[in-house]
Design goal:
Number of strands: 12
Helix content: 25-40%
CATH topology of the largest domain: Rossmann fold
Number of domains: 2
Number of helices: 11
Shape: elongated
CATH class of the largest domain: Alpha Beta
Order of helices and strands: HHEHEHHEHEEHEHEHEHEEHEE
CATH architecture of the largest domain: 3-Layer(aba) Sandwich
Largest sheet: 6 strands, parallel
Distance between the termini: 64 Å
Radius of gyration: 23 Å
Strand order of the largest sheet: 2-1-3-4-5-11
Length: 330
């Protein structure tokens, strides 16, 4: 109970311990405890954003899992800036922690090659980098491919990639655009570059981005947004334009945030399996803290992404063979 592992004891035992602590006014000497164990009992987590539902949910999942192991998680903010990410991994900074988890948004292999860290580091990122640290990747290409395949199966042919980027980019939007283009190629459909629409990844950015496309009167019948937040913004833009989802335009997001199940209509989205990713981060970190001396970088894990179908795309029963759907510019 004192170590924060109450799940390992019965409720009756936990209540007796808590009552005894209260009666004796016991206070744990954290400094002495850390000196004896040679640890701080703390793991750091650096995130590019605190106002993102996706990162917030991921941080909470990690916090719960580390707490069950008696480890306190402390979150820091990098703003997705390379200098802040590198500073977070500096040896002097890591002295405050037993290990560190970095959600990498801007740094690349060249930047990481400069790091000489004496503490365990686990990277959580979008793309493969040099094998110097344990690293969990997201299935960006596979998830985007599944999203586009789903839209094609539901009759869509002109699909906007909201928040897209050049497929050659080793970034989140680039990788998700790559998966989208792979699905089009497999279906024998030539992509329209005008439908790869760069934008930010927030609700406001998604709404503004799609409004700008609607103002240019480009024809499209579906939207694949590279984040759920951008997809929710797209729903607003389409509603303001008098377009029905999914009847006129189908929409798919990516991240499976909680808000996706509560929008109108509920958002079809890609689930990157964040629960399994959080489990893997904690397992990797705890193995290192418990003395696993295997070479760093031996663990590069990718959990397959899956499609979660809701109301923003047509069901199979709603598809009429040979029917041309509406949509802007149709």
């Amino acid at each position: 109970v004192l170590n924060g592992r109450a799940s390992r004891v019965s409720d009756a035992t936990r209540e007796r311990v808590v009552a005894s602590i209260s009666a004796l006014d016991y206070r744990m000497n954290q400094s002495a405890r850390s000196l004896r164990r040679g640890r701080t009992g703390t793991v750091g987590l650096a995130l590019p954003s605190f106002d993102s539902e996706y990162y917030g949910a991921f941080a909470e999942a990690l916090m719960v899992r580390f707490a069950d192991r008696g480890i306190r998680l402390v979150a820091e903010h990098t703003g997705g800036i390379v200098s802040a990410e590198i500073s977070a991994l500096a040896s002097s900074h890591l002295d405050a922690y037993d290990g560190f988890v970095l959600a990498l948004a801007a740094g690349d292999a060249e930047h990481l090659d400069r790091i000489e860290a004496a503490k365990p580091i686990v990277l959580v990122g979008e793309r493969a980098l040099a094998n110097r640290f344990d690293h969990l990747l997201m299935d960006n290409v596979g998830g985007a491919r599944r999203a586009t395949e789903h839209l094609l199966q539901r009759g869509a042919r002109r699909i906007v990639v909201l928040g897209g980027a050049a497929a050659e980019e080793e970034s989140m939007p680039g990788l998700r655009t790559r998966g989208h283009l792979e699905a089009l190629s497999a279906a024998g459909i030539d992509p329209d570059p005008a439908l790869i629409l760069p934008s930010g990844f927030t609700q406001a950015a998604g709404c503004d981005g799609l409004r700008s496309l609607l103002a240019r009167d480009h024809r499209f019948d579906a939207v694949f947004a590279v984040t759920d937040a951008a997809a929710l913004g797209a729903l607003r833009a389409l509603a303001d334009a008098g377009l029905r989802v999914p009847d006129d335009v189908q929409v798919v997001g990516f991240d499976n945030i909680a808000a996706a199940a509560h929008s109108t209509p509920r958002l079809t989205t890609v689930d990157p399996n964040n629960a399994a990713r959080a489990d893997s981060v904690v397992e990797l970190m705890m193995a290192r803290l418990d003395g696993d001396s295997a070479p760093l970088g031996r663990q590069v894990i990718m959990h397959p992404a899956a499609l979660v179908e809701h109301e923003s795309t047509l069901s199979r029963q709603q598809i009429e063979p040979g029917r041309r759907r509406g949509g802007p510019g149709a």
